[in-house]
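Margin note: ligand = zinc ion.
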Amino acid sequence: MKFFTGKRCRKGHLADRYKASGQCVKCVENYRKTLQYVGFRVHKEDAAVLIKLAEALKAVRKLKNKGVDID
Ligand SMILES: [Zn+2]
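Resulting structure:
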């Protein structure tokens, strides 16, 4: 499911968002293409999940850099 917010994403795309994740369709598509480029085949929906995962890992790394103990 997609919907249009009329707002640009943080990368500046004026595109539909996925209803479930709120992620920009273009960002997800770009991410999927990047993964394909390195030989990793993913579906659009999976790419959205992978972005979430990457963001979560980034957040964890940030906390670890701050000295928060997570494992
Ligand atoms: Zn975007």
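The mean pLDDT is 89.
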